[in-house]
Amino acid sequence: MLNKKPVKILALPALVWLFALFVVPMLLIAVLSFLKRGTYGQVVYEFTMNNYIRILDPLYGQIFWDTLVVAVLTTVLSILFGYPLAYYISRLDRSVQQIWLLLVMIPFWINFLVRSYAWVIILRSQGVVNTILESLGLITEPLPLLYNSGSVLLGMVYTLVPFMVLPIYVSLEQMDRRKLEAAYDLGATPWKAFWHVTLPMTKSGVVTGSILVFVSSIGMFVVPDVMGGAKSALIGNVIQNQFLSARDWPFGSALSIVLMLLSMLLILLYFRATKASETKEGAA
Amino acid sequence: MKTWRRHTLTGYSWLMLVFLYLPIAILMIYSFNDSRINAVWSGFTWKWYLSLFDNRQVMQALGNSLSIGIISSVLATVLGTAASLAVKHYSARWRTVVNGLVYLPIVIPEIMMGLALLVLFSQIHMELGKATLIMAHVTFSMPYVMVIISARLADMGKELEEAAQDLGATPWETLRYVTLPLIMPGVVAGFLMSFTLSLDDFIISFFVAGPNSTTLPLYIYGLVKRGVSPEVNALSTLLIASTVLLVVVAELFRRKDSKTITY
């Protein structure tokens, strides 16, 4: 066999780069979360658990809870909205499929700050919707469509739904269609065939999509910032604030560590739950 | 499938496309609206675009975005391509370890990477600015380059490389004259993708940009926070147009890539 050593070292620069600019910084956050904040916002090198104790305050509990609720709702709505679209695309002719996929991907590539802002133009009090309704004489006062939890949820689903469509499409594409035919041959109605064959077989796509959407929405601060106003602060906004306004880096780090652990835990539970139901179905 | 069911699904899917594109279309249309405050259409105008070109801050942000985008995507492409070539020859176990390190930045929430880098730069007393932005952008786009190029390499098979080596080529010659030309479309697609990611990034840049290194998305954020002005629409429209253009070109390269691969 040929000596592959010279080629093997080509990975070294990239690995060193990722170690220095990804692994080390993440570890620094972990260390920082156990340190103290000085009077002027500097970091004091003294061990403390106070940052984590402070998170137990019901105020932060509430914000974490709100964040989780929004993230879960965003994920569920993305499945409900995204699945039928992915299903439709998977049934199209190859060449048309490619075009639809590109069409779904393009908005996903557009900056989500810009996409959230697009909704501001539509929903604000002098926005497109209110202007149309007023000129039709349906309302006299502009409706408060923006800066509430509903608009945040709308913005989240809008920006994240492509994350759901693509993985579900991939799993639909890879599905063994013969099993579906078998189900039909055995007299299953289309709904039954979908529920008992297609859906379980595309679970991996739903799981992947859910994780992508969930992870993105749990740390999101742009959408709540632009579409939610001050009222609906999520944990991402609080972390951002601790770092840039309050200048309490240790506390901000502790918050983000808890956020990361929480999201990892939930993803693990979700994985377990979907795996468990899969084996149950297999046994039945 | 019964016809009505198929029609419902088709209708629904088109509605989803409308849902995805309508806000973007409205944003773009209103960048040509003459009125400053109202959503009422008061005539077509180019003036918001013209005022952008007169705006020194915008031009500076554009310059920053472009230079950071080019430098960081060249770096990300070179590092990522080299790494993908090497990782292909790793044993299964090492490949898993390396892939874990590479894919982690993709799945971690962006806000975490942003503030982790902010902490790093402050700890090593590095002043926030273009350099820190470039370093951050390379970090988040290199994994994507590796994903694209690894996929290309996996499809490629070993035959051509082995043939070259049988004919007496050294590993470097094989790399230079066989492997690299074959993966070139993937390399270009990877470059375009990291350029798009860099041009578009807001969250991570938000944390690692210094006061004098505003990029276009950061500038847009400032405008959005200060209140709605049609200039934001114009600037957003330009950003959307360039993103779409880059994505389509990258996609064409990727397609060309997957077409040439089937011999």
UniProtKB/TrEMBL annotation, chain B:
PANTHER family: PUTRESCINE TRANSPORT SYSTEM PERMEASE PROTEIN POTI. This is ABC transporter permease. Keywords: Cell membrane, Membrane, Transmembrane, Transmembrane helix, Transport. Residues 62-250 form the ABC transmembrane type-1 domain. Belongs to the binding-protein-dependent transport system permease family. CysTW subfamily. Its main location: membrane. PROSITE patterns: ABC_TM1. The chain crosses the membrane at residues 12-32, 66-87, 102-121, 133-154, 174-195, 202-222, 234-253. It is a multi-pass membrane protein. It is found in: Cell membrane. SUPFAM superfamilies: MetI-like. Coiled coil: none annotated. CDD domains: TM_PBP2 (cd06261). InterPro entries: Bact_Polyamine_Transport, MetI-like, MetI-like_sf. It comes from the Bacteria.
